[in-house]
Structure formats: C-alpha cells, structure tokens
Specification:
The complex is a heterodimer of chains A (269) and B (169). With 269 residues, chain A is mostly beta strands. Chain A has one domain. Chain A is built from two helices and 19 strands. In chain A, the strands form three sheets. In chain A, strands 2, 5, 6, 9, 10, 11, 15, 16, 18 and 19 form a ten-stranded mixed beta sheet that branches. Chain B has one domain. Chain B has two helices and nine strands; from the N terminus they run H-E-E-E-H-E-E-E-E-E-E. Classes of the chains: A mainly beta (269), B mainly beta (169).
C-alpha cells in the first residue's frame, strides 16, 4: 500500500512538468496603463495554485517574446530567477501597446529503456537527434502554449495584438488595456488562425488568498470563437483555455495539446 | 476700403451664430492628512455617449523630473485618461496648468474656446476628476445646457468639494 502511494507520487511528480493544467502559469505586470518618459514595467512570472502568489515554482522564460507597438521584438532586462518566481523588466520606449508572452512549442516523448520509463521534452529539431529511432513503446505528443499579458504606454494600438496564426490564441475585440469594472469586454479565441468554437474559458480574479472560493467565471466561445465577459469588479484577472487536436507537425505524434493563459487588468470606474 | 469691409464682415460670419458661456466653480477641499499633495484635476465636457468633447482644464505637476514632467501619473485620472488624456499631447495651451491649492477655483469658458465653441447648443455633462498622490480619487458629473440658461451642482465627499456650473446663452 505504502509502496503504491510512493509510486503514485513519483508518477505525479514526473507528470507535473508536462501537465500545464496542473497549476496555473502566469505573468503579472506591475501595471498595465502607463505614461511619462520611457516608463518601465516589471513582470513577475510564476506557476502556482493561488493567484497571483509565488509559492510553487518560477515560470521558465526561455521562450519569452516581447512585441513592441511597432511590431518589433524587444528584449527583457534584469531577468532573475528565484526560488518561486522569475522577474524581468521591460522598458517601454515606444508609445502604444506591448505584448509580453512566453510561447512554448514542445515535443514530448516517453518510452521504455532497459525496463525503465524514459521521459523527454524538446523541440521538433531535437526530437530527431535525441529520441532513439528504435525506442520501445514510444509515445509522442506536441504542445503549443502561450502565457501572456499586455501593457500600454500612452495611447493603445493594435499592432502587437495581431495573432501569429499558430496554436491557441486570444484575439482581443475589446482592447486588453481598456477594461473597466461593470463593463462588457469581447474576445475571440482561434486555433491556427481559425475560430475556436465551443471552447471552455475560465476566468479567475487574483487575490484568491483573501477569499474562500475561487469565484471563477466560466464561459464558452460561440461559433465565431467569441466570448463576452462583464467584469464583476476591478482587479488582475487570469484567463485560461485549453484544447487538443491531432494537427501535429511531428509524424510520430498523434496528439497536439493547446494552452492559452492571459493576465488582464480591469480598472475601477 | 470695400475689400476691407468684406473681410471684416466675413470674419464676423465665421463666429458661431450663438453666444454661450459657462461659469464653473471647482472646490478643492482642505484635508486633514499627514502627507498632502495637491491633487491632479481634469475638467472636461462629455456628450451623451460619454465621449470627451472638450478638455477645459488639466492640472498636474509641471516640474521636470527624469520620469517626465509629472505626466507619469496622469493615468491616475483614470476616466479622463481613457476618454481623452491618452490621445492628447500635453501640454495644451489654455488647458493644462500646474496643480492648484485648496479653495474654490472659478473658471469661465465661452464660445471662443477652441473645442467648446465648436459644440452645437444642447445638453452636455461637465466632468471633474481629481486624483491625489497617496490619497484618493473622485469623479463628479454635472449636466448643463450649452447655449441656454441654467445651473447645476454636485457635492464631492472626499477629493472634491462643491462643483457648480452656471450656463447662460
């Protein structure tokens, strides 16, 4: 019995780094609406159960991409990773809206080797070289996930909001830095550029430590992939949606998992 | 002579066909707090759809700092920032100015005002928003008739005192 439990725990521990849905991943900017000469934002990146508290593991930001208002890429500065969070700064030299996101595109594999289970994660390129061709009971999967947030210096613009057309993406209809309590906001989800209909979307306001329930809002996208939400109150909100399909680019992979998370700030009236 | 007369006449014709004026009083209350900073204040006119139609006054810190001429904190005037501020290039002559002390500030705007003067006569709302460093924020609205006679007021409870608008044709 004890051994079974131990094994179960081990199995769970092994699964965790691969299971995006086990904990909540998020980016939290210090503020989302800024002005002045060359303002800066500092962003916390973490994975945790509670929003937005760092108490589990830092979010890996190797694949961090920051898109400036003119569509160019800018680099994060002063990046540091601690026990519970990664933190980095972004200098907002341009006026307009920045998209700050971690976009992961992984290939995962598991197989048996000398009676042991092997787990592997890499990219499409490393899959060919690192996974043995004759691996026994090889299971391959792909996962495309986005964790992002938006900040605006001065007047908002749309250039950085343009979707890449790969994986699960949120296309704002209401500008993500123009959200106010009591008002309705509209967004569209798409998968590879096409509307993601009937998608379950979970919306949770931060500050979960100071209340007894998650108070999550659950909405579904319509045939056009759109959903609306009326923000019940001001705060930092976490929005998540997941999906899966078989549109893999690695031929051994049968399933592709898609994940999306955004942190959006809703201001009081 | 004749040419000059024509020019003079056309100049007259270019003026609005009506006269209008509003007298606005905005009270900044005395607050019993340990650390006091004068509030940032924005005063503007909105239409029925909350669209900002005319900026009347924006008071903020003018002193130059490395973070910008006090403009870093303009988004704290949340509604004004959203409705107008974020697309406005400050400073604006006759609109932006330094923060003001405690007391009642009397302001008069006539139809020679560059934005207000272009509005057709009708019903509008005057909006006054105040935000104070290490303090609070308050927003008051007073409906008024532009190009008509009337008066309205709103009483603030925290960052603003009495706001009155008297309009006359």
């Amino acid at each position: 019995m004890k051994k079974t439990l131990k094994l179960a725990a081990l199995a769970l521990a092994l699964t965790l780094p691969f299971a995006a849905s086990a904990h909540k991943a998020w980016l939290q900017p210090s503020q989302t609406v800024l002005a002045g000469n060359n303002p800066w934002v500092t962003v916390d990146a973490a994975v945790s159960n509670d929003l937005f508290y760092f108490n589990h593991v830092p979010l890996k930001t190797d694949n961090l991409a920051i898109t400036a208002p003119d569509g160019s890429n800018v680099a994060a500065q002063n990046t540091a990773t601690g026990k519970y969070r990664t933190v980095f700064d972004v200098e907002l030299k341009q006026a307009g809206t920045y998209r700050i996101g971690v976009v992961n595109n992984y290939v995962t594999g598991s197989w048996e080797e000398n009676g042991q289970n092997k787990r592997w994660r890499g990219t499409e390129a490393t899959f060919a070289t690192e996974v043995p061709k004759n691996a026994k009971n090889l299971q391959v999967g792909q996962s495309v996930s986005r964790v992002e947030t938006f900040v605006t210096n001065g007047s908002p613009n749309e250039t950085a909001l343009k979707p890449a057309g790969v994986g699960l993406e949120l296309v704002p209809v209401t500008h993500p830095n123009d959200l106010f309590a009591g008002e309705e906001a509209k967004f569209r989800f798409q998968i590879d550029g096409k509307p993601a209909a009937n998608l379950d979307v979970e919306i949770v306001r931060g500050g979960t430590r100071y209340r007894n329930a998650q108070d999550e809002l659950k909405v579904k996208t319509n045939a056009q992939g759109e959903f609306v939400v009326t923000w019940p109150e001001a705060g930092m909100y976490w929005i998540e949606a997941n999906s899966q399909d078989d549109k893999t680019t690695v031929k051994q992979a049968k399933q592709r998992r898609l994940g999306y998370v955004a942190t959006l700030e809703v201001l009081p009236q | 002579m004749r040419v000059q007369l024509t020019i003079a006449l056309s100049g007259l014709l270019a003026l609005p066909a009506y006269s209008a004026e509003i007298q606005v009083n905005v009270q900044i209350p005395q607050l019993n707090v340990a650390e006091y900073h004068r509030p940032y204040v924005a005063i503007w006119v909105e239409g029925a759809d909350q669209k900002a139609l005319a900026n009347l006054a924006v008071w903020y810190q003018q002193k130059s700092t490395s973070e910008g001429h006090g403009t870093k904190w303009l988004p704290d005037l949340r509604q004004w920032w959203r409705r107008s501020g974020r697309t406005l290039k400050v400073p604006v002559d006759g609109v932006t100015g330094p923060t003001r002390p405690v007391g009642t500030h009397a302001l008069t705007f006539g139809n020679q005002h560059p934005e207000l003067g272009k509005l057709p006569p009708g019903d509008y709302t005057l909006v006054v928003e105040a935000a104070r460093e290490v303090g609070g924020r308050e927003l008051l609205k007073v409906p008024f008739k532009w190009g008509g006679a009337g008066s309205g007021k709103a009483q603030g409870t925290s960052e603003l005192g009495l706001v009155t608008v008297a309009s006359k044709p």
